[in-house]
Each structure stands twice: as structure tokens, then as C-alpha cells.
Amino acid sequence: MKKYQSYINGKWIDSLSKETIKVDDPATAKGIGEVACAKKEDVDVAVEAARKAFNSRILVDMHPMDRAKLMHKIAEELRNVSKEAGKLLCYENGKPLAGAEYEFVDAANYFDYYGGLTDKLEGKTIPVNKGVIDYTVLEPYGVSAHIIPWNYPISMLGRSLACAFATGNSTVIKTPELTPLAAASFFAQALDKAGIPKGTINIICGYGDEAGSYLTSHKDVAQITFTGSVPTGKKILHVAADRAVPVVVEMGGKSAAIVYPDADINKVVETAKGAIFGHAGQICSAMARVVVHKSVKSELLDKLAKLSKSLKVGAGYEDGELTPVISEKQLQKVENYARSGTQAGAEAIAGGKRVDRPGYFFEATVFDKVKQDMTIANEEIFGPILSVIEYQDPEEAIKIANDTEYGLAAGVFTKDLDQATVASNQLEVGQVYVNSWFTGSIATPFGGYKQSGYSREKGQEALKSYLQVKNVGIQL
Ligand code: NAD
């Protein structure tokens, strides 16, 4: 089995203990590689490399245009490897090949986008007393620690890393233990080939409760970016609070689409294909619930059931449309949720059980007769399960959509733009999609309300999290 290493201070190295983490192909449950398992002592080495690189001021003192050129070079190298790297990511992650390749292109886009902003990070002059010049300077924090989830390991890495790098921070990235291989190899190689200064970006893998928790509590880490589940995010927030370190928290969701009586039902169904069954529903902003008007519910249910039965089950590299969930543990979790739905009185009109084949496949499932107080309507399942909830008047629809602890995303399907605008104003979420899903780009801010988090990634909004403001007052 191929062995992958950590990338620290410009070198690929084993962990000091020589321990590794085995990585499986979720479509077959068979091992495909192993990666160096970072322990506390390896985290120390990585943080030390990042701290030294930061203290040398190599990124900070680099002309912003040169930092931009370096970032565009990284983008180019990431695009160059996207085909080959996508294959490895597809094997370790289970997602469709095109989506896996696109993660590298997406990461490249982040480097281009934030590369274009390096010379636009301006402070301001502030009028104060006569005889005083007052101005602000934007400065990086120092060592920025990034904790990455397994569902989009390369996109998420590119998203936070490009922003941290553009602003002059040095970084230590802890990749997810379930899908670390493409980052340890192709991603690190692209950085190295582009010529990043040694130690400015370090990539390690290790278990969350060991390497992740030690990294986020490390005395030399000055800023943390976490993307993952709410329980882990809360743990990190506690740890960071003890050290008064700022944290970007991007967490889970239980997003609802409201389908009004005038909605184009075919469009809703077409959208649901990617929004809840794409990547087997393992998407933070997945369309996990549909809140549909009574008058169009039966048409929608018929079409959703047809859709879910039509999806080709298979690995990402077999052109599967319904690909596996990430692990046996995740599969069992999805099964338990499906069981709880049935026990609570919901009815699976399609799917509802694991697929009888090797690997971790679960049927594309549509639950009818869901009530908002059921567990399947409230908790993030992270699997291909769609809960359909009926409403009768528009206020009730908004109330149902908002009635979870999460607030990541929501959608409205209607031809009435007034209706869409009013609903968008009332939905308690970080992003609203109208007659679509995942609408936006790397330039649009992304993040949650309520338990889904409070910071923003993507767009110019994200830069704020990686910069601190210094005010200088000069008495003439
Ligand atoms: P997770 O919380 O289990 O793990 C995320 C990362 O945290 C992993 O790298 C893990 O090793 C690490 N970790 C675990 N315990 C830790 C600890 N005590 N200290 C430090 N690090 C620790 O989440 P997951 O299962 O990998 O990812 C799925 C979750 O991520 C879902 O809830 C999904 O909604 C969320 N997510 C959110 C976004 C977003 O932008 N809002 C994007 C992708 C995924």
C-alpha cells in the first residue's frame, strides 16, 4: 500500500513515531494507502516551522505583487495536477471523478482570487486632533491553524489557506484522517513546485482528538480556522477561548427548501438531484428538508421518488450518481436516522436502507409525512436522506424552515419575486438560494447563522478573519 508523508518545512517526512493512518476506498472498503500519523511531537515540529517562517517575515515583507504572482503560480500548479490528483481524491473520498477533479480547480480559483487581492489590503487615515497623523495597518496574526473536514478536503483547504496566505500568515493544516492522501501528495507538491518559502505552509494528518486538539491549543498558534461538525467546533471554541485566540467556525446545517404553489416542480426535482443526493448528501449546505405547499406535494413526491429510484449506484470512478458515504460508521449513522424516521411515523417513499453491495452505499431516500419535531428533521444526517414536510400558509413555511438550531442555508422555489424576497429576509441563514441551490461563487461570502457558525469564508469578507488592525497615532 502506498505511503504518504507529512509536508513540513518544505520536506516530506514520516511522523516521528513512524505510525500511519490507513485510508480506505469507501466504494469497496478496501485500503488504498496510508499516511503519516502526526502526534504531538510532529505538531510541535510543524508549528515551529511555521513560527520561524512567520518570524522571518518572508511572506509579510514580500512585495504584495510578488505574493500575488506566487499565488497565481500555485493556482497554475494545482490546475496542472487536477486530472491526476482528482483520481486519487475520487478513490479516497468516494465522490464522482468530475467533482474530485473540480476540487483542485476550485482550490486554484481561490489562489487566483485572493492572489488578486494581496495588493488591495489597505488601511486608512483617520482625522483626529490637530497635529496628529493617525492611520491603520492590517497585519496577519502569525501561525494560522486550519482543521479540514473530509467531505471537500481540497476545496476547503484551498478556501481557508489561500486567504491566510494572501494576508501573510504562515499555516499548519491538519487534514482529515479519512481523506488525507490528495492533500499530502498532489496539493503539497503543487505548493512546493510553485516555490513557496519553506515553512510558510505545512500539511500534516492525524486524529482530531490528538493532533487536531493539540494543534488548536498550541501556544504558538495565533489564529484558527475550523470547518467541520458543531460538536467539534464547540470544543475548539472552548480551547481557543482559554487562550483568547480568534477562530473561524464553519459548521454543519439542516437546510430547507421552501416550495411555493407556483414553483416549477421539475426544477425543484432537478435541483434536489445534486443538492441532496450529490456526494451522497455529505454536503454541509445540502438540501436536507423540503417544506412544500399541500397543493403541490403529491406531484413533488412522485417526481422525487422517481428521481431517487433512477440514480445509478456506484463508485465515483464508475460514473456512479449515488456514490458511497465515507465510512462504515457514517453508514450506520445514516441507517440509524432512517430507522428513527420510520419509528417516529415518517414514511420512506423511496430508499430507506443500505445498498446490498460492498462499500458504504445507502439508498437515495425520500421521507414523506415528516413533522418538524422529528429527529430526522432537526439533526444533520450527512447522508442521502431528504425529509419532506407539508405546510399550508407561507408564515408556517418560514417557521418550519427556521425551526432548527442550524442556520447555514435555505432555498425558495417560486415564480413570484416578491414572495422570494420576503422569504429571503425572514430566513435565519447565512445564504439563501432562489430557484436554485449552491448559487454563489468563491467571491460570495459563505457561513452560518445560529449553531452553523458566525464567521465568513469566501469573498472579500473572509479576509477580515486573517488580519488584525493596528492603529498608529503620530503626534507631530
Ligand atoms: P468533524 O467535526 O468530525 O471533523 C472535522 C475535523 O476536525 C477533522 O479534521 C477532525 O480530525 C478534526 N477534529 C476532530 N476532533 C477535534 C478536536 N477535538 N480538536 C481539533 N480538531 C478535531 O467533521 P467531519 O465529519 O470531518 O465533517 C463533516 C462536518 O463538517 C459536517 O457537520 C459538515 O456540515 C461540516 N462542514 C461544514 C462546512 C462549512 O463550510 N460550513 C463545510 C464542509 C463540512
Query: Which kinds of small molecule does this entry bind, naming each only once?
Result: nicotinamide-adenine-dinucleotide
Task: Give the total of beta strands.
Answer: 19
Q: Please state roughly what percent of the residues sit in beta strands, choosing from under 5%, 5-15%, 15-25%, 25-35%, 35-45% or over 45%.
A: 15-25%
- Supply the helix-strand structural class: alpha/beta
**Main pleated-sheet profile:** 7 strands, mixed
Percent in helix = 25-40%
Give me the oligomer status.
single chain
Record the strand order, biggest sheet: 14-15-16-13-12-17-18
What is the number of helices?
Answer: 13
Distance between the termini: 68 Å
Based on CA atoms alone, the radius of gyration comes out at 23 Å
Low-confidence stretches: none
What is the average per-residue confidence, as pLDDT, rounded to a whole number?
A: 98
Query: What would the principal axes of the Cα set say about the shape?
Result: globular
Structure notes:
It is a single chain. By secondary structure, the chain is α/β, with parallel strands linked by helices. Helix content is about 40%, strand content about 20%. It is built from 13 helices and 19 strands. The chain has helices spanning about 40-55, 65-95, 95-115, 155-165, 180-195, 210-215, 230-245, 265-275, 295-310, 330-345, 375-380, 395-400, 415-425, and strands at about 5, 5-10, 10-15, 20-25, 30-35, 130-140, 145, 170-175, 200-205, 225, 245-250, 255-260, 285-295, 345-350, 365-370, 385-390, 410-415, 430-435, 465-475. The strands form 5 sheets. A 7-stranded mixed sheet has the order 14-15-16-13-12-17-18, sandwiched between helices. The chain has a 5-stranded parallel sheet with strand order 9-8-7-10-11, sandwiched between helices. Strand 17 (about 410-415), helix 13 and strand 18 (about 430-435) form a beta-alpha-beta unit. Helix 1 packs parallel to helix 6, helix 2 (about 65-95) runs antiparallel to helix 3 and helix 2 packs antiparallel against helix 5 (about 180-195). The chain starts with a strand and ends with a strand. About 55% of the residues are buried. The model has no long low-confidence stretch (mean pLDDT about 100). It binds nicotinamide-adenine-dinucleotide. Nicotinamide-adenine-dinucleotide binds near residues 148, 152, 212, 227 and 235.
